[in-house]
């Protein structure tokens, strides 16, 4: 588990930019964005080789202990041992995920008006975090 941020206060129209390094033997890593650790509006999980997925991004939401339906993206712009910059733009009804050369949106299933919580887990070392 990497650093945990609380009280981010990200509202629609704002964005969070995450920069970091992916482990050389990475299996997967996770970035969670939500209200707190139990209410996750976006669980972002690039999988190099984990849980039966290879080079797939799996996104989901979590309400207390209840996961939603998984959303899969097959564009996979990550390299083991590489660095990456990912930007999460918060909109009224969804979050836009900006990756190198690709972007997609994930619905705000929990109708969160503010995203206060962010954490990273897995084979990823956070280098910088900025929001505007």
List the helices and strands and how they pair.
Layout: E1 4-5, E2 15-22, E3 29-34, E4 39-50, E5 53-63, E6 66-67, E7 71-73, E8 83-90, E9 94-99, E10 102-107, E11 117-122, E12 124-131
Antiparallel strand pairs: 1-11, 2-8, 2-12, 3-4, 3-11, 4-5, 5-6, 5-7, 8-9, 9-10
InterPro entries: ConA-like_dom_sf, Galectin-like, Galectin_CRD
GO molecular function: lactose binding; laminin binding
Protein name: Galectin
Give short descriptive properties of this protein.
single chain, Jelly Rolls, five-stranded antiparallel β-sheet, seven-stranded antiparallel β-sheet, mainly beta, 12 strands
Calculate the terminal CA-CA distance, rounded to whole Å.
Answer: 25 Å
Strand content: over 45%
Helical proportion, percent range = under 10%
Number of strands: 12
**Which H/E pattern describes the elements?**
EEEEEEEEEEEE
* Net shape: globular
The number of helical elements comes to 0
CATH topology grouping: Jelly Rolls
Low-confidence stretches: none
Q: What structural category do the secondary elements indicate?
A: mainly beta
């Amino acid at each position: 588990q990497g650093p945990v941020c609380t009280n981010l206060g990200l509202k629609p129209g704002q964005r969070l930019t995450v920069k970091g390094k992916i482990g050389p033997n990475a299996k997967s890593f996770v970035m969670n964005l939500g209200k707190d650790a139990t209410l996750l509006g976006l669980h972002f999980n690039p999988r190099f080789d984990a849980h039966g997925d290879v080079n797939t991004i799996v996104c989901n939401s979590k309400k207390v202990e209840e996961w939603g339906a998984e959303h899969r993206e097959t564009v996979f712009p990550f390299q083991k041992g590489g660095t990456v910059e990912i930007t999460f733009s918060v909109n009224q009804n969804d979050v836009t995920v900006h990756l190198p050369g690709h972007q997609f949106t994930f619905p705000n299933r929990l109708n969160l008006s503010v995203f206060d919580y962010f954490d990273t887990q897995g084979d990823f070392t956070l280098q910088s975090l900025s929001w505007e």
